[in-house]
Amino acid sequence: MSYVEYIEPKLSRFFIFNPAYFGLREDNDYEKVLLYYPATDIREQMLDVGLIEGLVQFASTFSDTPAESCHNEKTRFTIYECEPNWWIVMGSQNPKKIKHIEEKKGKKTVERTEVEWLYEDLDDIVLRNTVDRCYKMFRLFNGPMEMIYQEQGEAGIREVLNQTFISIIQSIKLPNLDLFHTLEGVEFLPVNKNVYLRILSLINYSEQTFDQIKYSTLMYKDSLVWSGLEQDDMRTMYRFLKSQKRNKSGFLSGPVDLNDPNTECRAQRVYIGPESDPHYLIIYQLMDCTVVFLIEESSLNKLPFYVQLDKLLQQEINFLSPIIREYYNRSKSSNIDDQFRYIYFNHMNLALKTSVKKLSLPVEVTMVLNQIHSDFERSEEQINEIVVGTQNHGWIVGKKSDHREFYVLSDTRSANSSLEEISKDVKRLQDKYFRNIFIDDD
Amino acid sequence: MSLSGKLPVVITSDSYSETPLSRSNSFAEGAGSPFDVYSSDDSENYDVEDSINITSFGDDDNKVNDFGLRSMRKYSDQDPSSPEFATHKKHIFILTSSGRPIYSRYGDENKLAGFMGLLVGLVSIPSYSEDNIKAVIAGNLKIVFSIYGPIYMVIVSKTTETVEVLRSQLEYMHSQIISFLTISAHQLLIDKPRFDLRNLLNGTDSFMDRLASQINRKPTYLLNCVNCMRLNGSVRNVIGNIIQSERGSRSLFFALLLAKGKLVQLVRPKKHILYPTDIHLITNYINCIDQLEIGEEAMAPICLPKFNNNGFLHQYLSYINDDVCLLLLSARADDFFDLSDTRDRIVKSLKESDCMRKLNNWMQKENYSVDDIGIQGLLHFIYKSHTTSQMTSPVLGPPYSISNTQKKRLFRLYETMHSRVHLINRPHKVYYFGNEFETIIAWVTPGGFELYATFGPLTPKQVAIAGCNKLLRWIEQEEGNLFILHSPVW
Questions:
Q1: Are the C-beta atoms of B144 and B173 separated by less than 8 Å?
Q2: Which one, out of A50, A378, B318, B460, has a CA that is 20 to 30 A from the CA of A426?
Q3: Burial class (CB in 10 A: 0-12, 13-18, 19+), A113
């Protein structure tokens, strides 16, 4: 029996190099490689680095934009200069089809396989965002590479990279990269004016009373309610917080025991803002609310500050939490027609709203969505709308207006409906949606 | 009676017997480029071994017999260090696996040796990991690599074209080279890696240049089909029958009648199809050589890669009037007199049956515009029939006819739509695209047709869809005139 097997893409290699500071001589040029995962022969490493350097050099004769990706048949390289002279490269093994063919040769049945590498299937934007996110996560907890090198020297940066980057790399799951990863939006929980003002006054009061607090963030379950951080940092912080387990109450990150005057204070250092200033991350959890404070280094071990903070937060959150819960439940049960799965994203505030269960979309639908998004981003002329009627996956609609993107996937059951009908349905959905967002968006 | 500089040899009844141009065997026999007019009376063989003794690229100039014709190409003085070199929107480089230049769209090939060496390096590194380089992206710059055995082809493009479109353009350029040399060029380069292929390609730059510019702007290349001349179906049938009945010798394979460079009729053997890619090579050839006088005849070899990439067919070309020419492709190089007779008989029958007069009338009004069809909101369209591999399209009207930039912009949109529609395994049924300037609907039925229809930006969807339906009905009504529905066979 003949059949076709689809092999998913996977991470093939990941490396970081700096050709300007290290390995400047012929005999030590391998030193420019600071990190290479998975570890392999230095000659193979240098082949990869040589290719990338050659491509970047070559492309620079024709274009001011540096080379972003190299499409090889088996491997897709994503090239990202995260800081001047510091290069991150991710190699992804392309998806492939293996055809198992049974043939009759005389009396015997022979099996053979044919491999077809799908070398244009992976989307460069998605891959680039993945690398960017890895870098941002690294920078949040370690600061920029340049800064680490200046402070700790060559040995220092090598050590930090090898210790911290590996776990970030291992968290990359290529087959699961889809439009959500590209947009990297934040799920907001819109609340009404009064509740919003109450939350705002809590934040302001905390920040005024406690000098040490520089930035604050409030989340309810997995939705963001308030953040004082800059967008880039907010996205990374939000992603980090979502990945943390928040089962217990009290200070998840901060003083271990409020009652013990000599208690240890466990808090991670984070680097925030364009200058990557160091702060300490304090996480407080109570009744599904997660409050995050970023405090100055000097205040880390001052117990009285935490005790006071704890009292304040307990009081306020006890009041606020039930109210926020109502909004949360309301937003989760809003009855948008189940027939349509939608994704809404606002570039200005990074708000993301969706009824699609993550990781549930077929590969081909993901490819079309990524392609539509890429067209929205890269086209010189402003594209307003793209509607795709696929053979096997129903209709896929993408609309863009100002900074908002709206995608709708229709059920395959309605595959026979026409372009007109789909457009009417989308308009209905859109009116419902855009209007809601306007009211709750403060 | 002779053609200027480039090619092919004009065979008059006197010199015919001296021409060594039957090239159904390989190069090893030594004669120079079939297109090199100066080798026509050469009794000495141009020994292939000679070219290997050329020590450096710089010396080639002395050995090349094109008498400075190459320097007449635009931008041919540039090299990679010139600032203007990098500003061209689309470079095409063709080289061998050992870095020898074969063709460069811009610049002097002789100065590109180092640059070509770089390209070879970039191709070879992934091969150490048993991988192959396919493309490099840098912002809106795309560098696409296509490897055909020992021939490397590279496009460096700043247009908005997709990697798939650029790759198919390289395939056309490669077919053009094969059409000059046959596929044995590959074996030649494998056996003699330092051989300079340009010695066999003298005078072909203009063909390559023209092809490079055609694939950049003609939907027939994008969709891999032929755009025939619009002509009354019954007139076309009579023409077909006339040609079909005048075969003459059995070595005559294909007969094409073209008017203003567009195909009017085609007659073929029952078992052999002439594919659009081959037809494009033929029309490119006709458009490149200098106009023959009416009544003049010429014969030259051509290899049609899709038909048979191993050998040459011999094309007999003759103009019947200013715009109409007859092309007869024969398997034999010595068929000239038979073909000439066939041509005379065909022309006589065409004139007697009044076909020539009718053909001339249709040529005046062959182009049509969207106004002639009368569909609300429709600005332009391209319709391709999968079954016949032919397309039809009206002349561009406003707002696209206003400037070349607009024309180009629309064509680039069509190219992008084509790539989008064919993104996943099964092409999309419908692809609706709306930007601030226009709305384009692509409609594909596998095995049926492919339609790209452009409407104004504010056209409501119902109007656009109704327009498409009306258009399809019009095309169905007119198909007898728009397409060659029946090409006779012998």
A1: no
A2: A378
A3: exposed
Kindly list the distances between the CA atom of residue A67 and the CA atoms of A127, B142, B148, B175, in Å, as whole numbers in the listed order.
14, 9, 25, 30
Cβ neighbourhood burial of B147 (10 Å; 0-12, 13-18, 19+): middle
Query: How does strand A75-83 pair with strand A86-93?
Result: antiparallel
Whether A197 has a pLDDT exceeding 50, the answer reads yes
By the CB < 8 Å criterion, does A83 face chain B?
no
- A-chain CB neighbours of B432 within 8 Å are 385-388, 419
Q: Summarize pLDDT for B218-231 with one digit per residue, the tens.
A: 999 999 999 999 99
Chain A residues inside the 8 Å CB shell of B165:
none
Which pair of tokens denotes residue A339? 């027939």
pTM of the predicted protein model:
0.86
| CA within 13 Å, CB half, A248 | 6
Identify the CA nearest to B317 among candidates B347, B337, B292, B280.
B292
Whether the complex's predicted ipTM surpasses the cut of 0.85? yes
Residue in B265, B274, B225 with CA at minimum distance from that of residue B246: B265
B405: burial class by Cβ within 10 Å (0-12, 13-18, 19+)? exposed
Structure tokens belonging to residue B61: 């100039």
From B125, B132, B139, residue closest to A65, measured CB to CB = B139
Residues contacting B44, CB < 8 A, separation 6+: none
Contact B137 A67 (CB under 8 A): yes
Is the per-residue pLDDT at A26 higher than 80? Answer: yes
Angle (deg, nearest 10), helices B113-128 and A42-60:
150
User: Can you tell me the distance from the alpha carbon of A75 to that of B136, in angstroms, rounded to the nearest whole number?
Assistant: 12
Task: Flag if B135 and A70 touch (Cβ within 8 Å).
Answer: yes
Q: How far, rounded to the nearest angstrom, does the alpha carbon of residue B357 sit from its chain's CA centroid?
A: 29
pLDDT score for A258: 81
Residues of chain B with pLDDT under 50: 1-71
Which residues of chain A make contact with B434, given a CB cutoff of 8 A? Answer: 383-386
Tokens for B104, please give them: 């460069």
A118 touches chain B (CB under 8 A): no
User: How near does any CA of chain A get to the CA of B114, in Å?
Assistant: 12
Helix (H) or strand (E) holding B379: strand B378-385
| Look-up of token digits 């998004």 | A373
Distance (Å) from the C-alpha of residue B337 to the closest C-alpha of chain A? 50
Neighbours of B283 (CB within 10 A): 20
The pLDDT tens digits of the residues spanning A289-345 come to 999 999 887 777 778 888 888 899 999 999 889 988 888 888 777 655 556 788 888
Which whole number is the average pLDDT over A8-21? 94
Using a pLDDT cut of 70, give the percent of chain A over it: 95
Which of A84-93, A98-107, A183-192, B204-213 has the weakest average pLDDT?
A183-192
Helix (H, G, I), strand (E, B) or coil at B136: strand
Looking at the complex, report in whole angstroms how far the Cα of residue A276 sits from the nearest Cα belonging to chain B: 28
Q: For residue A357, which of A341, A371, A336 has the smallest C-alpha distance?
A: A341
Contact call for residues B219 and B393 (beta carbons, < 8 A): yes
Tell me, yes or no, if B133 comes closer than 8 A to chain A by beta carbon. yes
Residues 364-383 of A with CB under 8 A from B: 364, 367-368, 371, 375, 378-383
Sign of the CA dihedral running A250, A253, A257, A258: negative
Name the one residue in this structure whose structure tokens are 């051509």. Answer: B302
The one-letter amino acid at A54: G
Query: What does the angle CA B282 – CA B193 – CA B80 come to, to the nearest 5 degrees?
Result: 75
Residue B418 has φ and ψ, to the nearest 5°, of: -60, -45
Average pLDDT for residues A333-361, to the nearest whole number? 77
